[in-house]
Amino acid sequence: MKRERKLDKMVITSEAQYKEAYKKSVEDPQAFWAGIAENFQWHKKWDRVLSYDWSVPETKWFEGGKLNITENCLDRHLKERGQQTAIIWEPNDPGDDVRKITYAELHEYVCRFANVLKDNGIGKGDRVCIYMPMLIELTVAVLACARVGAIHSVVFAGFSARSLATRINDSQCKMLITADGGFRGTKNIPLKEIADEALDHCPSVENVIIYKNTGQSIEWVSERDHWWHLETRNASPEFTAEVMDAEDPLFILYTSGSTGNPKGMVHSCAGYMVYTTYTFKNVFQYKDGDIYWCTADIGWITGHSYIIYGPLAAGATTLMFEGIPSYPDNGRFWEVCAKHKVTHFYTAPTAIRALEKHPVSLVEKHDLSGLKVLGSVGEPINREAWMWYSKHIGKDKCPVVDTWWQTETGGILISSLAGVTRQKATFATLPMPGIQAILLDNEGKELKSDTAEGTLAIKYPWPSIARTIYGDHDRYKKVYFSAFKDHYFPGDGALKDEEGNYRITGRVDDVVIVSGHNLGTAPIENAINEHEMVVESAVVGYPHPIKGNALYAYVITYSNTEEANQKLEDEIKGLVARTIGAIAKPEEIQFVPGLPKTRSGKIMRRILRKVASGECENLGDTSTLLNPDIVNEIISGKVNTN
Ligand code: ATP
Ligand code: MG
Fold this sequence. Notes:
Blueprint: H1 2-8, H2 15-27, H3 29-37, E1 48-53, E2 58-63, E3 66-67, H4 69-73, H5 78-81, E4 85-90, E5 99-102, H6 103-119, E6 127-131, H7 136-148, E7 151-154, H8 161-170, E8 175-179, E9 182-184, E10 187-189, H9 191-199, E11 207-211, E12 225-227, H10 228-233, E13 244-245, E14 249-254, E15 264-268, H11 269-284, E16 291-294, H12 301-313, E17 317-321, H13 332-340, E18 344-347, H14 349-356, H15 361-364, E19 373-376, H16 383-393, E20 400-402, E21 437-440, E22 452-458, E23 468-469, H17 473-481, E24 492-496, E25 502-507, E26 511-514, E27 517-520, H18 521-529, E28 534-544, E29 548-557, H19 562-579, E30 588-591, H20 605-612, H21 629-636
Parallel strand pairs: 4-17, 6-7, 6-8, 7-14, 8-11, 11-12, 16-17, 16-18, 18-19, 19-20, 29-30
Antiparallel strand pairs: 1-2, 3-13, 4-5, 9-10, 14-15, 15-23, 21-22, 22-24, 24-25, 26-27, 28-29
The structure holds adenosine-5'-triphosphate and magnesium ion.
C-alpha cells in the first residue's frame, strides 16, 4: 500500500490544515511544491523547482525532472489497483451496454494504441489531432499520445469542418484520430464525413485512424485512412513510455472562443500533472471506492484535467458519458447518478439552469442518496441555480464546490474544498494553496482592503499555468501579461468578502459604461434571474445617443403570452432597480426562446451585442454555435433600438 499512502499525504482534511498549507505555499512556494511533487513517479527528480520571468514571459517547473505522465496515471496503479475500474462508460442510449475498463486493461489498451501511433510514424513532439465522441477510445487516444510523447490536440466532436481545419492547421497536426460517427441524443454526427471535408484543407495530416463506432458507411481514402480495430488487433500490449522532460509540451487545447478567436494553449508535462492531481484530490475529497462523474466533454479543459489526468493519476474511478442531459428525457443525469451510484458529480451552471426548468419529479424518481459532493464550473453560478442544485440534487447535505479556473490555468485556482473549507452560495471562496490571487483597481493598484471589488490577477506562478499560445508567444504575452506588470491577468472580475472569499462577477470586458457608470453585466443578469418566471438572461450594451451606452436584456421566461411578458418587463426593471440601482435598469428587454451558446454552453455575447446595436448583417463566424438557428429567431423579434 506504499504508493497510495503517498498520494493521500497531500490531502488537506481540515480548515486548519488548509490555512497551514496556504501559508507555507506563499512563504516558501518551492519547498511546498517540491513536497507535493515527491508523491509522483519520476525517472529523475528535478534540479530546480521553479524558475520564471513574467516579463518574457516564461515559467518553468521541475526543470531537469524526467517522467511520463501515463506511468503516473496507469503503471503506478497496476500493483494495488490493477483490477479496480478506471473508467465506467455510460452510452448515449440507456438501453445499450455499459462498458467498464480496469486500470490493468486500460494500461494494456493504451500501450497497444501507442504502438499503433509509433507504427504510423508518430513520435515525440508530433502533433496529433483527436476528433472523437465521448468513448473510452478517446481517453485511450489521449493517453497513447502522451505515452509516445506526441502532443495531443483534442477538438470537440461537435465542431464544424471549418473549425476543425483551423485547429489542425494552426498546430500542423500530422495525424487525425476520429470515428465514423458519434451519437448525441437522437442525432448521429457524421464525424468522418466532417473530417474528410476538413482534411481537404489540411496538408499536414498524413494518416487518419478511424474508430468504428456507429457502423455507418463512410468514404475511404486509401493510403491515408486506417481502421482503429485493424491497427490495434496485432499491436503489442507493451510499450515503454517515452521519457519526457518536465517542461516538454503535453497537449494543446483551444479555448472555447467566447470572447474572440480561440487560442491554442500549450500545457507541459510535469507541472500539469502535479497540479491537476493535487487539486482533484483536495477540491473533491475523493476517497477510495467513490464514483466520480464530471459531465464535461473531453474537448474542453475540464475534461482533460478532471475526467482524464487528475482522476487517473489519483487512481480514481471516473465516469464518461457519451450522451446529453436531455436524452431520452431531462432526468438522464439523475438516472445515470442512480444507476452507477455516483458519489461526486461535477457539472456546469448552464446544465443546471436547463434542468431546473423541468419538473422536479424528474429528479425525485431517481435515488440520489449516494451523492456526497457536487461541483460547478464554467461560469458564475447564480443564486437560484445554486439553491436548486444544493436542495434538489444535494438534498441539502452535499457540499457544493464552485470551481473557478480557465483553459489557461490548467487546473482549479479558486474553490472550496468539499466539506473541509467553508462554502458560501455564489462564491468560489478561497484560492487553492499556491494561488496568490489579488484584486486590482483600473490603474493596476492592488486593492488591499478586507472587502473589495476589482479585476482578478495572480501574482505568482503555479505549476499548471499554460506556457504559451501555440505558435504565437506574442499574443500570449499581450493577452495575459500586459494588462498589469508581472501579474497573470485572467480577464475576470471578482469581489472579496470580509472572510477573504472570492465571488467571480464575470469577465471584465463585459462591462458597459452607461451615463458614465461602469456596470458589469453579470450582476444585472443575476438580479434578473432572481425573478421566479425567468429561466436565463443575457445583458449587453449598445450605443445610445444620450447615455453613451444603454443596456439591452435578452430574457428567457417560463411564460409565453405577450400579456404576461408585458407585466414581467416592469417587474424585471423594478427588480434590477431595487437590487443594483436605477442606473442598471435595462433600456430594452426582449423575450427570447433561447440564447446563442458556444459548444461548451457559454453565451456568445459578441453576437448579442451586434444584434442589440442593429448590426444584424455582420455577425461574424456563427458556425461554432451550438444552436445557430436561434440567432435568426432573436433577430426577428428584436426590439427597435435605432
Ligand atoms: P475564450 O477565452 O476563448 O473567450 P473561454 O474563456 O470561455 O473562451 P474557458 O477557458 O473554457 O474559455 O473558460 C474560462 C472562463 O470561464 C473563465 O475565464 C471565467 O470567465 C469562466 N469561469 C469558469 N469557471 C467559473 C466559475 N466557477 N465561476 C465563474 N466563472 C467561471
Ligand atoms: Mg477565456
